[in-house]
Each structure stands twice: as structure tokens, then as C-alpha cells.
Amino acid sequence: MEDRKGDVGAVVVAAGRGVRAGGGAPKQYRMVAGATLLEHAVRRLQSHPAVRKLVVVIARDADEWFAPIAARMSPPPPYVYGGATRADSVRAGLDAMDGSIDRVLIHDAARPFPTHQMIDASLDGLAEADAAIPALPVADTLKRADEDGRVLETPSREGLFRAQTPQAFRLPALRGAFAAFAAEASRFTDEAGLMEASGAVVMLTRGSESAFKVTHPEDFMRAEQMAESMETRTGQGFDVHAFGPGEAVILCGVPVPHTKGLSGHSDADVALHTVTDALFGALGAGDIGMHFPPSDPQWKGAPSRIFLEKAVDMVAARGGRIINVDLTIIGEEPKIGPHRDRLEASLAELLRVPKARVCVKATTTERLGFPGRKEGLAALAVCSVETPRSDDVS
Ligand code: MG
User: Fold this and answer.
1) Which uninterrupted H or E stretch holds 106?
2) Which residues of 276-312 are buried (b: 16+ CB within 10 A; e: fewer)?
3) What single-letter DSSP state applies at residue 265?
4) CA 394 – ligand 1 centroid, Å
5) In this structure, which residues have their CB less than 5 angstroms from ion ligand 1?
6) pLDDT tens-digit map of 83-132
7) Ligand 1 centroid to 184 CA: how many Å?
8) Which of 49, 96, 327, 355 counts the most CB atoms within 10 A of its CB?
């Protein structure tokens, strides 16, 4: 699994005109299952845990098509304008990467459904190469023909692959290849071709049929069917911890100063336990106690983020993404309001989602019951997760 502390950037190239697919707007702006091809692609990349910075490259005259997308997405993806050729557009995207990024994924917006497994494989491939690109072996028999359709020969398909995107590159090597080829860079149909010409090692990794390119009108039907294979699932969580000795309670991984702490086997972060259980619930994957038995001494005093990380990894491993999490902390004290911003920021970071996708609220029980008697804190959470339809996944 890719190191998620990563420094991985993603450039989604959406500057093309896509005339072959017919219709008015370029194909990446056409709707499939309630979102444009571009949005589907951005979501798949943005939700990958290693991707730290994503930028979309659009054509200079594409504002009218991009504006509704920016309005629908929360937060809207950053974008830059591309150039006259694909190479110019990719370069513009690379220029938008900051200094901490040292690996980059280049993706075509016309491929709406790249999988996280493909991205993992390509990033892993960079351990031994400057470029690693997803590809599938050619299955059909190949024919070479003249303009009239008369077959000239049947070339062997042995060793032939169909290259897909996102393609992964070591950023300095890719920048070097662009610099070396300068004006000539536009003759390559993908960046891997440019890297090959520069003498770099380019590795093939396992591609996926679901990352097909929408090229012809009938491909929209296929994309529609793919999108419908996703489903939205809901999970809920509930947890309680009693107060004990201490000077702070840990909530969402953040120490909140108090005259007491929370007692429990781990760090007793009632908020993270609740959210973790909600995620496991959405996946139909048991509960926190099943994955991290309290009887196991290795979880004694453990930071609860490791429990949440497991649930978040499980969502990603299923090819899913977290849509939102809504958390309510229940108790008389400490007051959550002054810390709410930090709690939301921490929770969003741990869930690897933008802050707009989490909400942390607090309420009292009007001094009734155990929270009202200030004996401890409770928490409730609801989450929504989008995953591939999983009737056949246990
Ligand atoms: Mg607990």
C-alpha cells in the first residue's frame, strides 16, 4: 500500500474538444448519472488517500462548461488553463504543483472511472521506475488495413498492451523529459511516450476495464451502467465513555482541556470511536470491538486514530469514498463550541476528506441522565459512503 503521507499530485487533463463523441459540449462536460465525466474522474482521484493536490486543466474557452461543475463540487477543484496541445496543457498542470509534490498522476478526464487499485499499483511501480502506467493486454486479433478496409496483414498481438490513465511519474523526471523535448513534446499522445523517448524506464502495471475511455457515443451508455453500479450506504455509530482522572479529554484526536479525562482501554476518544463504528456500519463490516478487541493488550492507551484509519482504508480498498460524516457530542462539559473548528479540521484530515464534508455538533441532555450528571460523554454519528454495489461482497 502506498505511503499515505505522500506528496502525490494529480493533473486531470480536460482541455480537449472531444469531437468524436458527438453532441455540443466537449465530452468531458457531458452528464452521466448526474455528474459530468470530468466530475466522476476528479472524485475518483481526489478520494485516493495518497493524492495531496489535484488540479484540473481546462481549455481557455471552457469557463461556461466548467462553472456549473465548480458550483456543484464542494470544494470546487482548482483549475488552470491549458494550451494549444496536450503537452502544453499537461505542462500547465505540472506548473501548478507545489514544491512538496514529487510524484504526479496524469489522468484523462474522458476516463471517468479509474480505480484506486490501479492508482496503488502505479504508485507502487514508481519504486523501480520513473514512470508506471496502467495497461491491459490486447485481447482482440489485430488487423492492419488500407484506406478501403482491405486487410494488409495480421500483426501478432504478443507483447501488445492498451495504455490507460492515470499514469504515474516521478515529477522531476517528467519535468526533465518535457524540458529535453521542448517543442517536440506535442508529438506524443501520452506522457509515458515522452518518457520512453527520453530513455526513462517505464513500467506497465495492472490496468482495469472500468477505466475505459469514453470515445464514441455508445461509450456513454457503458459509462451510465458503470455509474449505476455505485450505491450510497449509510452507517450510524454510538459510544459512551465515563470521566476519569486527567486534564483533558481527547475528541477527534484533539486534546480538549478539562478538569477530568475520559477513561477507557485506548485513549477513550469517544468521538473517533463513534465515527469509526459508523463507517464500519456503512460497509456492513462489524464494529470497532470486533476489529480491535478491548481484551487485546496492544490497544491499551492506543491513539484512536488507528481505529479510524482502518475503517477509512477499508472504504478505499472497496473502491469507495466517504461522502459525509455528521457527529454529535453529548455532554454538559467541557464546552465544545470553542474547539469545534479544530475538531472538524482534525476529523476531516483523519477521514481524508475536505472539511466541508464533516460536521461536529455538541448538545447537552438538559442535565438529565449520565451526561447531565457530568459522569461522562456520549457521541452519535451518521455517515454516508459511496461504494461499488456490494450484494456479492461479504
Ligand atoms: Mg469507545
Assistant:
1) strand 103-108
2) bbbbbbbbebeebeeebeeeeeebeeeebbebbbbbb
3) S
4) 25
5) 239, 273
6) 989 999 999 999 999 889 999 999 999 999 998 889 999 999 999 999 99
7) 60
8) 327
**Helices 340-351 and 270-283: crossing angle, nearest 10°?**
40
Cβ neighbours around 230 below 10 Å, total:
16
Candidates 292, 280, 305, 293; CA nearest to 381 is 280
What are 24-68's pLDDT values in tens digits? Answer: 789 999 999 888 999 999 988 988 878 999 999 999 989 999 999
- Give residue 273 CA to ligand 1 midpoint distance, Å: 5
- Whole-prediction pTM value? 0.67
Give the relative orientation of helices 305-317 and 340-351 as an angle to the nearest 10 degrees: 40
The Cα–Cα gap between 270 and 379 comes to: 6
Ligand 1 centre and the CA of 372: distance in Å? 19
In eight-state DSSP terms, residue 76 is P
Measured in angstroms, how far is the CA atom of residue 330 from the centroid of ligand 1? 14
Q: How far is the CA of 276 from the centre of ligand 1 (A)?
A: 10
The rounded Å distance from CA 239 to ligand 1 centre is: 5
> How far does residue 303's CA lie from ligand 1's centre (Å)?
12
End-to-end CA distance of the chain: 22
List, as one string, the DSSP characters of 119-155.
HHHHHHHTTS-SEEEEEEE--SPP-EE-TT--EEE--
Average pLDDT of 132-152?
A: 95
pLDDT of res. 4: 40
CA distance 32 to 330: 41
